[in-house]
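Lab notes, practical 5.
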Amino acid sequence: GDVTLRNRVLMGSMHTGLEEGDGFGHSLDKLAAYFGERAKGGVGLIVTGGIAPNVAGRAYPFAAAMMSEADARRHRVVTDAVHAHDGAKIAMQILHTGRYSYSPTLVAPSKRRAPINFFSPRALSGTDVERTIGDFVRCAALAEEAGYDGVEVMGSEGYLINQFIAKRTNHRTDEWGGSYENRMRLPVRIVEGIREATHKDFLIVYRLSMLDLVEEGSTWEEIISLAQAIEVAGASIINTGIGWHEARVPTIATSVPRAAFSWVTGKLMGRVSVPLVATNRINTPEVAESVLESGEADMISMARPLLADPDFVNKAAAGTPERINTCIGCNQACLDHVFSMKPASCLVNPRAGQETELNYTQTSTPMSIAVVGAGPAGLACSTTAARRGHQVTLFDAAAVIGGQFNLAKQVPGKEEFYETIRYFSHELSDAGVKLRLSTLATEEMLLSGSFDAVVLATGVRPRALNIRGADHAKVVSYVDVLNRTARVGQRVAVVGAGGIGFDVAEFLLHGADSTPAGTDAPSALPQRVDDFLCEWNIDRQVSNSGGLVKARDAGANGSEHVGSSRKIYLLQRKKGKHGAGLGKTTGWIHRSVLKKGGVQMIGGVSYSHVDDDGLHLKRQTGGVQTLEVDTVVVCAGQTSYAPLETSLQAAGMPTFKIGGAHLASELDAKRAIDQGARLAAQIESAAPERVGELVAALPLQAWLYDKIVLSRQR
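Output from the prediction step:
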């Protein structure tokens, strides 16, 4: 065909929870608004979240599918919303989940249960396979009828097509199994069928797993063979897929270096003539341009970066990349939401997925607002309120903005928080917020400043250790450790295994405390790609099937992973898994890093006392233990800090608390930014006592998941 895209940016597929639609009619208005904003923001080609071609392919019962003309008619609102913006195009991803489906009716090439599922699949018969091919083709034809410019055939990430391709999951002995020629027959037949059933200009994007990251995955020779066969079959573009969902290698989390996998796409360049798309952790225009200039890809796929900022492409094109709200790769509001049956959103952009409900309209009654605290909640509230037309003054006793983000950015693997602070620094200026740093706001200052309302975003204070010896010289707070103002010895006990405890353990494991206090960068700079590949045993040559090497051979990448000389204990009162409250999609990564670094995790303890000998513990199973440590780092939670609240309220000043000042559980930046933005969106009519209600509505399926699944895990 002859299709021209307006730029080289492909918005990668990502399930949002909006694909199923609202109400009895399954209206897709929310999905249309979501994609419409990204089309307006300049994206060349958008790819939707996965849409099943048949009932068995659904991710879970009643998940989105394209199986009838009625389905096609419902999707018209989505394609119309995208096409309203000159030159924007959209492809619908066809996804058959295979053995990853959370449904008792799931199917697969062979009867082998996925390690991340509790349902066992039924093996497809030969007739079933032929019918499935027909379902893919019919799905594509319906997508064309719905106004889509193309489809993406999901052939990676360990879903059905990938399951047929790999020996790991295909144990068939018929024409669909055995030799690689047989195992790759399914995707080739699907692409051939779609090409024949659709217009010559209808785009066919094939998502090819170029690095499975599981044992018995594809070899590089097989990947080349499949790519060439897919091109001959009629594909227009080949997109890169990295890792199966069951792989125990991080591929998109913030600890993954930027563009860590573009080299994989680069290896395929020149082996096919259709455009190749690089993906994963490409989150700034500079990184994207570097990948293109190096010749590693023809196009760039970004999914989460366009959740964070729908205007990413337009800002880059305008030469204002500093204005981009950069994706920090945290997964907290996107993937963690999806796997908890909640609509996807974004920690740094709470409007993502909420485009029809959370809007920052210009106010008709401008107010003068004081915001106290320039942490995540205060920054979100002040910039949003100012952009709505309010006069905002932001106070902070510190000399810099960022609050708790200034601690988070010190942790190796969380350097992306620098980007969020950079973004807000420009937002404050552009929105016209009056910034008063190094200023401790007082009651007199706030009451005499002609303010109509005060927002306290004053955060939290660390909770002290309430045991004998808590004032011993060995005992320090996590704040002083992360600020690098406390000296930490070689033998360390970290008290508390929540998110902060894990961050501190990783900070110390990597020796990030060695940089002098007051410097603007942590000692552990963002990992080099080769170091990352070595740490996770990834074979840059892809000489082994699946792209993994044995740990003892990992140094073949040209680097060696160096362990820590420190002895670190991570302690918690509860029995069971450490970090149970960490992110659903990232917690395992943090546990794995600490385990590989030799951190000893001890649970089911109470703390007796600290003395010159160290930290004395009592086990719930009986007995006592003394940890002979040099330093005890206290990460035992926080308390809300809002000392001005009572006096301001007594003086009749409308006073709101947001973020940690409102609720001190963990250091929840997601809730803080969301709450700050939601208050700013309706501060004219908001009631201080109802700030806790400023949250996104919880869908029925998410409520059921919380009550049934999560309650059992607790």
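Observations recorded by the TA: The chain has a mean pLDDT of 94. The chain is about 30% helix and 15% strand.
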